[in-house]
Design goal:
Blueprint (H helix, E strand, L loop, with lengths): L3 H13 L14 E6 L4 E6 L7 H9 L4 H13 L3 H15 L4 H21 L15 H18 L4 H20 L4 H24 L5 H13 L3 H14 L8 H11 L3 H14 L4 H15 L7 H21 L4 H13 L3 H14 L3 H18 L2 H14 L8 H13 L3 H14 L3 H21 L6 H19 L11 H14 L1 H23 L8 H8 L2 H13 L3 H32 L11 H18 L3 H15 L4 H14 L4 H12 L4 H14 L10 H12 L5 H17 L5 H24 L4 H15 L2 H12 L5 H13 L3 H25 L8 H15 L4 H18 L2 H17 L4 H20 L7 H21 L9 H98 E3 L6 E3 L7 H14 L1 E2 L5 H5 L14 H8 L5 E2 L39 E2 L30 H4 L21 H4 L16 E2 L7
Antiparallel strand pairs: 1-2, 3-4, 5-6, 7-8
Keywords: Repeat, TPR repeat
GO molecular function: RNA polymerase II complex binding
InterPro entries: Ctr9, TPR-like_helical_dom_sf, TPR_rpt
Length: 1272
């Protein structure tokens, strides 16, 4: 697809290039009236379907038409896309008005310059070979426009429209500067032209007082080209604010372009979508939306439905529509050409690419045109044309360090196709430094992998570790991208990448290699299912899928399964691969026949060598059958390869000879091997097999010159191949075996032995130089290090690495030896046990494979098979002896009787395999002797009487064994030494055992009594502990029961008091309320007035000044003021003084907002609905005495006369005495949960308001009860 940033730049240019659209010529009328004669007559001239303008110009000149008529006629020609006629009319008008005032010429010159600019936009940037050489280019018309503009400036340089014209000229000159030139000079020229254009547009804006919208658009375009996207965006938005309906040119296109460059792609799409809505015929809006949608489709794989939806929308809804609106648009042509590239419609692609290259003045668009043309030539195989087009596409965007990445990548692909891998790799590495693209990683990783594979064949010693790491890193990065949901550009999995990774991991990380092959198999399964439309629910679905998979894949998976010793699964894989190969061969024949019948070229058909596949897979199948013990099937497979396909297949013939040696090592096998050796004695595999035969059949000798195997390997290295790795390793093993048996009693013997080890080391080292991954040579070096240098640590490091490659018994045996020498007994035991297990498995397989009878002498064969079967069930005595030795050393180190017993058991198992072996018999007796020594050395607490009895029995057996072994012809130790050990065992050791048994018996008897006493005490202690626990449990239950009882009593008491409180409330309600005789409703009782004349007088006084006197209820109210109770001490002088004080007055003032405060010890005024300064004690009530209620806490203190609530809604009123005037001594009242306050009402005495009943939820508190005389 077209480059997005370049497309945006081109879009801004194309937005100014719509002057030929009819919307731009709205002021060009369809007809014009021209005055003629002196009588004021007019003639109407239609301005549609205008022809050659000569006669019309003569008329205008004859009738001395005004300037506006000339310009109108020219605009009409331009509207009809007849720019040459329009230019002719304007040039003639210029000649006519040249004789007049200069200022009359300015509009005409301006029109001429704009016509030239319009022709410049339509002219080609370069003249192609197919065009007329006289074709005018953009630069020609731009130069003409500049000349006309200069002439106008000589008349009036400050003419406002000229600034706009000069700005556009400079913008076009900036575009041509980089489209026709390259390098830094072109960039500097472009920057100068843009800055000049910006100055011109700024001046035009200033002269128009910010009202020239086209000048503002030009300023925004200049800022955009200077990469000042934020300022450009502000300018475009300013234009849109001043003229929201402006759509030709559309500032929304510029807003979207700035948003795109700033990274807000979705906002850009929104702006372009709005532009399309306002102008459905906008070519630029459709093109940009198409390019945006194409970019979105790149986020998904081509097999994703979302890709298909977005791609169809981009092409059908946007780009196709844009191309139908303007077929000359270079931007649309470049974007739309990608569709024809994908559909391989080369003619249409070439036409669109030509327009994109020739019509544009934006380098990016021209680069896109060259690129699609290069892709076309690349697909057609025109390497030279493709290389030239790729180069032009790259140069159009700067080339070298800048340039166009896809074009550079295409050039590298051509380089690889030409075979210049080194140059391609160099260019890819340079390109990768600037672009971390997945395509580069994929291609470069594959090139590194190919270098590694080539080096493995040509020069295995070459170090390719750096290339290996790079290849793994790059290909793994590509692989991770497939599973990264957050990746900006997500690619679909590629089987080729996985196969490269599998091959790279094959030696270093085989498990990872298997994972890669499993992923390839999954991809193939999905692809086959989609292509063949198989039903996944069908019964034979798996079989169908397997047959259609590549046989190479099955073969590779089978090889890994064989390596993992999963022989059954490997056999199935090889059989499936063989069937798939046969199916592939039949398919190839069918396709070739169809192509020949249709007369088509058969070069593009699948040319996989099925014969080579059948040969390789059949050989692997036979090897797997061997591993499974199916020797007859393996022989049939090998013979089939030799008879029906390749009689000279030496590998198959060698395997047949090997099987013959296994089945008949004395007769048929050697004869068959000799016949094959005589027929092809120079083949390395045949010579290797012959060397193995000499090794397995030779007699042990200390003279290396007499060793037949040594002579064979020496002859191979001297006469056939001096770099034969198998012969070198064989020579090393021979020297190792001889050196191990050489005497080392004297210094010369030790020196001679060391030299033999040195020769072995040299052979192994030479083999490793030729094959650095040869594990057998590495194991030989490890053995030499152990035997000669005693360097067990370094040998261990080598053997640990070898273990992962060679799964042979010898490796685990050697590991057991090394671990034992390093005193890592547990690991040594594990290694020996693994070796023993593998040895048993191998012998069992060999036994199973020999069960069926074979052709030949039946009796002889049966006897041989039975002998093999008996031997196969025996355990390896050597491994058992080594394992027993390690357990014995571990027992000595740990002083463990169990380890010694295990060692004795293992040695007895070894003796069972060879009962007549004096060495094994001596080993058994020696371990029994060691057990006696250990038991005697242990303390009474560390041994038992049974251990001593067993040790004594073993000692008796050991004495007999020593005596018997001393009588054999070749005892393992001198006869005198064995007899001496037997005598010592009979005397000293036996007495020690008897004394130890007696001592142990006494110890165990005393210990048993101690244990019984301790057990008894422990049981008593446990019983006492259980009894104490039971008592604590009972006490706890009793305590809980008491708590429950008290809780119930408290609840009953609370319920009783609550009921008493409720009854008291009912009594108070009955006392305060009565039944109205007239209505029958419950009403509050009327209070009896004291001194009605005085009350009326007080009421009159209250009406005058707002004061009220302290009435009968004042004492009751005073008892609840401020939340604290003030009780004067009775019988004191303060009471007398209070009686003598005059009556006080209290003024009530309404407050806007009541404020509640916490009560404090000092009496403070509380703000509420009213303000009160003091409670006035009436002289009439001075003789009344206050009665105190009993004080208590909780529910024990109940108010006999609770303070009634006020009936108002605005808050409470606190009534408080003035300490300064009353002099009453107070004490604090108990704090209440909620304060109940009374409000003094002006009409309380006369109207007798209802006294509310205190609800049961009111907290109980201690308070004073003042009884009114009237209430009594």
């Amino acid at each position: 697809m077209a480059g997005v940033n370049g497309a945006v730049d081109e879009a801004l240019n194309r937005d100014y290039d719509s002057l030929l659209k009819h919307a731009r010529w709205y002021n060009a009328p369809q007809a014009i009236d021209i005055p003629i004669g002196e009588e004021g007559e007019e003639v109407e001239i239609p301005l549609q379907d205008l022809e050659e303008p000569t006669e019309l110009c003569q008329l205008l000149e004859t009738e001395k038409a005004e300037r506006k008529h000339w310009i109108t006629v020219a605009l009409s020609y331009a509207k009809a896309n007849k720019l040459d006629y329009a230019l002719e009319v304007l040039q003639q008008a210029q000649n006519i008005f040249a004789r007049g005032l200069p200022k009359d010429r300015l509009p005409v010159l301006g029109c001429i310059s704009w016509i030239y600019l319009l022709k410049s936009r339509r002219a080609p940037r370069v003249v192609s070979e197919a065009q007329d050489p006289d074709t005018k280019t953009k630069e020609h018309y731009l130069r003409e426009a500049t000349n006309v503009m200069n002439e106008a400036m000589r008349i009036n340089p400050a003419h406002p429209p000229l600034y706009l014209t000069r700005g556009v000229v400079n913008l076009l000159r900036a575009a041509l500067a980089t489209s026709t030139k390259t390098g830094q000079a072109a960039e500097n020229e472009r920057a100068d032209a843009i800055n000049q254009a910006l100055k011109c547009f700024d001046e035009a804006v200033r002269l128009s007082d910010e009202r020239n919208l086209l000048a503002l658009m030009g300023r925004a375009r200049s800022l955009y080209l200077l990469r000042k996207y934020s300022q450009a965006l502000n300018t475009y938005q300013e234009v849109l604010r001043k003229q929201p309906k402006m759509k030709d040119p559309d500032p929304r296109i510029g807003i979207g372009a700035c948003m795109w460059q700033m990274g807000y792609h979705d906002h850009a799409k929104t702006a372009w979508e709005r532009a399309r809505q306002l102008n459905p015929n906008s070519n630029i809006a459709h093109t940009l939306l198409g390019i945006y949608t194409l970019r979105e489709s790149e986020k998904y794989g081509t097999d994703d439905r979302r890709f298909e939806t977005l791609y169809s929308q981009a092409m059908a809804d946007y780009l196709k529509k844009a191309y139908s609106l303007d077929k000359q648009s270079s931007l649309t042509s470049a974007a739309f050409s990608t569709y024809f590239l994908n559909t391989k419609r080369w003619d249409q692609l070439e036409a669109l690419a030509k327009k994109a290259i020739e019509q544009t003045d934006i380098n990016a668009t021209a680069s896109d045109g060259w690129f699609v043309r290069a892709r076309k030539e690349h697909e057609l195989g025109n390497t030279q044309q493709a290389n030239d087009a790729y180069g032009r596409a790259d140069q159009a965007r700067g080339g070298q360090n800048a340039g166009f990445f896809p074009a550079k990548f295409g050039l590298i692909q051509l380089t690889i196709e030409s075979g210049d891998i080194t140059s391609a790799k160099f260019r890819l590495e340079k390109l990768f430094e600037r672009h971390k693209a997945l395509e580069i990683m994929t291609l470069l990783g594959c090139i590194y992998a190919e270098d590694i594979f080539a080096a493995q064949k040509a020069n295995p010693k070459e170090d390719k570790s750096a290339e290996y790491r790079k290849a793994i890193r790059m290909l793994e990065t590509v692989r991770k991208n497939w599973k990264d949901d957050k990746a900006k550009i997500k690619t679909k999995p590629d089987s080729a990448v996985l196969l490269y990774l599998a091959r790279l991991y094959e030696m270093e990380a085989p498990l990872e290699s298997e994972k890669c092959l499993a992923e390839v198999e999954s991809l193939q399964r999905q692809a086959i299912t989609d292509e063949q439309h198989f039903d996944p629910n069908a019964e034979d679905f798996n079989e169908l899928i397997q047959e259609h998979m590549p046989p190479q894949l099955h073969n590779n998976v089978g090889c890994f399964l064989y390596r993992d010793e999963a022989y059954e699964q490997a056999l199935q894989r090889f059989e499936i691969a063989l069937n798939a190969t046969l199916k592939l061969h039949e398919k190839q024949i069918e396709e070739k026949q169809k192509a020949e019948d249709a007369g088509e070229n058969t070069a593009d058909l699948d040319v996989t060598d099925t014969d080579a596949l059948v040969t390789t897979i059949s050989y692997n199948l036979a090897r797997t059958q061997e591993a499974l013990g199916q020797r007859q099937h393996a022989i049939q497979t090998y013979e089939g390869l030799l008879s029906r396909r390749h009689p000279d297949y030496t590998d198959a013939a060698a395997r047949l000879a090997y099987l013959a040696l296994i089945e008949s090592p004395q007769d048929a096998g050697p004869k068959k091997l000799k016949a094959m050796f005589d027929a092809d004695h120079g083949h390395p595999e045949v010579r290797a097999l012959m060397g193995w035969y000499f090794h397995s059949s030779k007699k042990k000798t200390a003279n290396i010159a007499e060793d037949q195997e040594f002579r064979h390997y020496k002859h191979t290295l001297q006469q056939y191949d001096k770099h034969d790795v198998y012969s070198l390793i064989g020579m090393g093993n021979i020297h190792l075996a001889i050196a191990r048996d050489m005497p080392r009693n004297t210094e010369p013997e030790k020196e001679k032995r060391t030299k033999m080890y040195q020769k072995a080391y040299e052979f192994f080292d030479k083999a490793l130089q030729l094959d650095p991954r040869n594990a057998f040579a590495a194991q030989g070096i490890a053995v030499a290090l152990c035997d000669d240098k005693k360097n067990f640590s370094e040998a261990l490091q080598i053997l640990v690495k070898v273990k992962d490659t060679i799964r042979d018994i010898s490796v685990f045996q050697n590991l057991g030896h090394v671990y034992c020498e390093l005193k890592q007994y547990s690991r040594s035991i594990d290694s020996y046990e693994t070796a023993l297990q593998k040895q048993i498995q191998q012998r069992q397989k060999r036994h199973d494979s020999l069960q069926p009878s074979v052709n030949g002498d039946a009796g002889e064969t049966t006897n041989g098979l039975n002998g093999h079967a008996k031997a196969d069930h025996k355990e390896d005595a050597q491994i058992l002896a080594c394992l027993s030795r390690v357990w014995l050393l571990k027992g000595k180190n740990d002083k463990s009787i169990l380890s010694h017993t295990t060692a004795l058991d293992l040695m007895q198992r070894a003796l069972a395999t060879a009962p007549d072996s004096p060495h094994l018999r001596f080993n058994v007796a020696f371990i029994q002797f060691q057990i006696v020594l250990l038991v005697n050395s242990l303390s009474d607490a560390e041994r038992t009487l049974d251990d001593l009895v067993t040790a004594k029995t073993g000692l008796e057996e050991a004495i007999a064994t020593f005596e018997e072994v001393a009588t054999v012809p070749n005892p393992p130790y001198p006869k005198a030494m064995l007899e001496q050990r037997a005598a010592m065992s009979k005397g000293t050791m036996m007495k020690q055992v008897d004394r130890a048994m007696q001592q142990q018996s006494d110890y165990e008897r005393a210990n048993t009594e101690k244990l019984a006493e301790a057990k008894r005490r422990r049981e008593e202690e446990l019983r006492a502990r259980d009894a104490a626990a039971q008592r604590r449990k009972e006490e706890e239950e009793a305590r809980e029961a008491e708590v429950r009882r008290k809780r119930e009593e408290y609840q009953e008491e609370a319920a009783r008091k609550a009921e008493e409180f409720r009854q008291a409330a009912l009594i108070r309600e009955a006392a305060e309320y009565t039944t109205d005789e007239e209505t029958g409703d419950r009403v509050k009782r009327q209070k009896k007035k004291k001194g009605e004349g005085r009350s009326k007088k007080r009421k009159a006084r209250d009406d005058e000044d707002g004061f009220i006197e302290h009435d009968e209820d004042s004492d009751s109210q005073a008892g609840h003021t401020g939340g604290r109770e003030r009780t004067p001490i009775s019988g004191t002088d303060d009471d007398k003084e209070q009686d003598k004080q005059p009556k006080k007055k209290r003024k009530l003032e309404r407050k806007a907002r009541p404020v509640k405060e916490k009560p404090s010890r000092k009496p403070k005024e509380k703000e509420g609905k009213f303000k009160s300064q003091a409670v006035v004690v009436d002289s009439d009530d001075s003789e009344e005495e206050a009665a105190e209620t009993p004080q208590g806490s909780g529910s024990e203190a109940v108010n006999d006369a609770p303070t009634p609530k006020t009936g108002g809604e605005d808050g409470d009123v606190d009534m408080q005495e003035d300490d300064a005037q009353s002099g009453a001594k107070t004490r604090p009242a108990p704090r209440q949960r909620k304060q109940l306050r009374t409000i003094a009402d002006d009409d309380e005495d006369e109207e007798g308001e209802d006294v509310p009943v205190v609800p049961s939820s009111v907290p109980k508190s201690t308070s004073r009860v003042v009884e009114d005389d009237d209430d009594e």
